[in-house]
Amino acid sequence: MKLSYFPGCSLGSTAKEYDKSARIACQALGVELVELKDWVCCGATSAHSTNHLLSIALPSRNVALAQEAGMDLAIPCSACYSRVKKADHVLRHDGELRKEIESIVDFKYNGKINVVSLLEALVSQVGVEAIAKKVQKPLKGLKVVCFYGCLLVRPPEVTNFDNTENPMSMDNIVKALGAETIQWSYKTDCCGANLGLTSTKVVQGMVNRLIEAAKEVEAMAIVTACPLCQSNLEMRRQERGTELPTFFFTELIGLALGLPDAKKWFNLHLINPNPLLQSLSLAD
Amino acid sequence: MSFIDADKRKFFNEVKEKSRQPIELCYQCQKCASGCIATGFADYYPNEIIRLVQLGQKERVLNSSSIWICSSCETCGARCPNGINTAEVMDALKEMAIAAGMVKEKNINLFHNTFLNSVRSHGRVHETSMMVIYKIKSGDLFSDMDVGLEMFRKGKLPLFPHRIKARGKIKDIFNKTAH
Q: What is the reported pTM?
């Protein structure tokens, strides 16, 4: 099966390992990701905080490109997904604004393609059972908490995916890989998002609360599906040792499927996950 | 909502229209504040912002930190029993604060402008130069140096931007949506 793929700006820099692991894991699962040609930044928080019309128009350009490519659009970054999904929601349901956006972006919306997060794409297109069947090296002994963050399941009327207060899709995938997921009450809290650079203390407060909560339930690591969450959770904590590394869920898929590149991804982390994986005999 | 003061009415109506949210329906259940992760770091709870808007308190609302510290995590809107998406209200208020020249959190707005300038130039954000420009303009030069260098060493901060082909199209979108 083929999907258009929109990596987003972070996956070319601070979240390189998410991009690499997403592409390789999908290939191993029989999903062909075709990168959207000449995609444009989604506008992120900066557009929707300062200019509503721009915040719909920029991601609509990507909807237009995906329409041309003719395949559903899968987006790994939760923040990009949220912006493109919202634009698609407006184009689909708000006739007046659609006309304005069509004229600004110079295209005709047909509503034929769906915008999905990469997590949703894997759950719905591949399925948890099929992922479980491909596991070569079960992640036995690895106890994690899944951190969905804000934007994969909110606002529910736009995302229309999983349970808003207690999502389970990432948990189910991680369990299919042989790891154990621990339930905690912070699954859909916020990591502080783009305030990392401007209001560091705020983000430190938010992140430390999450790290403490993960320690409280005796998690060994955190699993996420968002580059902002991953970098904030690793960068903005009180002390950066080797405790509680933060994985992208695609990296764990790669590791459990026995894909040789996994080692390279882990070397890119700020919190080195290798000691933990070695202690569980999951890495050399 | 009924107002004696025309300016207060004008402000309330403007926020309602811009945010497209039924602000008048809020009855202060405080479900939004209970789940708000930013409350400990700002000057008003989300329900207080909504109440102040209902009361037409333009200066207090537009001059607040809360509208900028809100990270748009959407928890409040997902839980509101009256279907008010407060994150949308916060966005409308930020736009209005910029237009009124009342930006309390100047660095956050500076970050947004720096980010969007990078997108306007290249079609995508070039994180490396964007961060350097932000640091110079904000005067916050030395924080995160260690982690920045580590990222650079790991090849996570590319020196050169990727420039998309359709840059003209992107500039066009920026121009057509300019205030």
A: 0.97
